Every structure is written in structure tokens, then in C-alpha cells.
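Open question from group meeting: does this chain pack into something compact, or does most of it stay loose? Before anyone orders reagents, we agreed to write out a predicted structure and look at it together. Recording both the input and the output here so the notebook holds the full record.
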Amino acid sequence: MENEIKLLLEGVRNGDISVESALLKLKTQPFEDIDFAKIYFHRSTPQGAGEIIYGESKTASQIVSIIEVMLKNSQSRILITRLSQEKANEIKKSFETEYFPEARIGVIGGFAEKKSGGKILIATGGTSDIPVAEEAAITALFFGNEVIRLYDVGVAGIHRLLYHCEEIMSASVVIAIAGMEGALASVIGGLADCPVIAVPTSVGYGASFEGLSALLSMLNSCASGVSVVNIDNGFGAGYIANMINK
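C-alpha cells returned:
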């Protein structure tokens, strides 16, 4: 891969290929096919972040094989989401892995250095939403962001949230995570002057329909500047928050 990039850069220097054409080639290739996975090495070119491994439904041996290919191709830091403790223990036999059980995330190669800039504030409606919040938090930290955790500040005791208005106002992006009726996102959207990423969770009694009620509430928010990711998608929220904060 490094030789291909070198030839491409030499072509740009010699005038054989335009900068735009070279950038397009970097965005579209290469990848390595290992039968059960096609690992994309240049994801950081179009998206600013390398390939992420989604661990759910993959076996530990499949994850280990993917990690081997990624490390061989110079991706030194790897994030593995939806990773069980059992699979993490197997991966640790092959690679030095930091595991965060509440977030169900494994990290190889450590976190990026904290970059200057804004803060990502992560708020939850209740304690039961914390696993999703931790997935968002570890994802954001992995990419070098400063994260403020504001847990159990739901609308059932809104004074808890209002007590932290200064922190909400000073954030560059807020991730609002809630189950039940999902009202937290609209309330924060009415307080914050930055983008708010709403994450519905599958927390709640029967009529919450495993997060569908919160999802629909958040999609119907009347607060401007609120966007919504899928149910329990803490990783997606943390990733988007990183892109906004950059």
C-alpha cells in the first residue's frame, strides 16, 4: 500500500496526474479482502477517521484477523464497538487491549491526544441510559475530544439539568441521551446554542416499545438544531459529535 501511495505522489509531483485525480484514488482504494471482511485502509481520507470494527455478531477470531490486517497496514489505533467481555478476553491474548465494559468498547493503541477546541457534553435522562452514554463518551475520547459527562438529569427532576446551564451553554456540541418519552433532547435543544445530537434508548416500560417512543419524540422535536441517531446508537452520536467538534 505504501508503495502505491508513493507512486501516486510521485505522479502528482511529476505532473502525470492531477491533485484532484490523486485525491479521488486515495478516497476509493485500496482495501484488503480476507473472505469474511473487506478492510478499507483509506477511510481516514474521506472521513478523517480510520476503519472501526463493529464487534457484535463477529467471532473473536474474525476480529483478531481484522486487527492483524489493520495493524499491518499502518492503522495503529483501533476502536472495536459492541464488544463482549468474553470476546475482549480472547482478543487480549493476541493484542494489548483496553476494554471498557460499560461501553462495550475495546481500544487498541490508546486514545488520540486531546486537541484544542470545544467540549462535547453528554447528558442522560437517567442512570439506566449510561451504557449508551459511555459508548458515546469513549468514542469521542478515542478521537481526542474533551468530554463532559452529565448523567441522570432527566426532565422528571428538571432542576438537576438547569443547575448545569453554564456547562450546557459552553459546549460545542451536546449529546442528549434518553429513553421513556425522550423529552430531554427538546429541553436541551431549547437551552443550548450549539448542535444537539439526540439518542433514544431502549429504556422504558411497555409503551416505550424498546425505544421507538423516544425515537419518534426526538424526531418530532420542536427545538431547532436537534438531530437524531438510531436507538441506542451511542457510537454514532460520539462519531458525529467528533466531526462537529473538529
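Observations to bring back to the group:
The chain has a mean pLDDT of 88.
DSSP finds eleven helices and eleven strands in the chain.
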